Amino acid sequence: MATLPLEDGTLWYETHGDGQPLVFIHGGWMNGQAWTPQVERFADEYQVVTLDVRGHGKTGATEPSQYSIELFTDDLEALLAHLDLEAPILCGLSLGSMVTQEFLDRHPDRAAGAVLGGAVRSMPPMDLPPGMKPLLSPMPALTTSLSMMGPETMFRSLLLSIQATTGEQWLSIDPSVRATALDAVGEISRDEFRKVFGALYRYEPSELTHVETPALVIHGEQEAPLVKRQGRQLVSELAAGERLELSNSGHLVNQDRPNAFNAATASFLEPTAQ
């Protein structure tokens, strides 16, 4: 892996292949290795870039006491500038989809295309009255729970809560994918887990009606219904948005159905090829 020095940390990233840049941003508490099936598929045609978002993977802890989706997007912009990448195609999953949306909001016509897997607009994935979100913040309870049980057990608890609500194996229907994801969570410190959770919870998305970038939203069939609803809302805002739902897959749709995800992505990207 290569590194990009930041003012308050070091960003780790990898590049593979040559061609039009295709940049992958992983989900919360995962790392760049979550995109292995996509790197293997697209590195022969594109310049594939993966990164470990701050707080995750090899990038690990950085100095700020609080993270935000905006900060993660600043890091993405810094990496694109560092690599001198023009007209990138962005592919983000979950937290990475939020980063992608924030980038599109800032740069409505800069990206050549965007693929948003497990796309979520906000957390929790529901509309709350203005001003209520800070009052309902789970951060104090989360901090207390983390001190007692640690990130992996905390994440398992969150999964059980979602499963009880949806009745589905929400994260992934593949036991090996779930196990790998939990291993990645277990490598994150309590403080970094808290900071990432806070970034997800606090994010307030803007409407994207001004975005001209073609975008494909991909959800798994076992995705949480409220997240699917947000995906439909997202597509309705985008000038050139479309949505696909893959059967036999959960939130980690790119790993549950890698061949189908790759085929859909490749088909979507054909018109963007330079």
Give an overview in words.
The protein has 9 helices and 8 strands. It has 274 residues and is of the alpha/beta class. It has one domain: Rossmann fold (3-Layer(aba) Sandwich). An 8-stranded mixed beta sheet has the order 1-2-4-3-5-6-7-8, sandwiched between helices. Helix 2 (69-83) crosses helix 3 (95-106), helix 4 (139-166) runs antiparallel to helix 5 and helix 4 packs across helix 6. The radius of gyration is 17 Å and the shape is globular. The model has no long low-confidence stretch (mean pLDDT 94).
Query: What is the first-to-last residue Cα distance?
Result: 27 Å
Class, according to the CATH hierarchy? Answer: Alpha Beta
How many strands, which pairing sense, and closed or not: the largest β-sheet? 8 strands, mixed
CATH topology, anyone? Answer: Rossmann fold
β-strand number = 8
Strand order of the largest sheet: 1-2-4-3-5-6-7-8
Number of domains: 1
pLDDT < 50 stretches? none
The CATH architecture comes to 3-Layer(aba) Sandwich
Helix tally equals: 9
Output the CATH homologous superfamily: Alpha/Beta hydrolase fold, catalytic domain
**Mass-distribution shape:** globular
- Provide the residue-averaged pLDDT: 94
Structural class by SSE content: alpha/beta
Written as H for each helix and E for each strand, in order along the chain, the element string is: EEEHEHEHEHHHEHEHH
Indicate the percent of residues in helices. 40-55%
Beta-strand content: 15-25%
Radius of gyration: 17 Å
Could you give a short description of this structure?
Helix content is 42%, strand content 17%. By secondary structure, the protein is α/β, with parallel strands linked by helices. An 8-stranded mixed beta sheet has the order 1-2-4-3-5-6-7-8, sandwiched between helices.
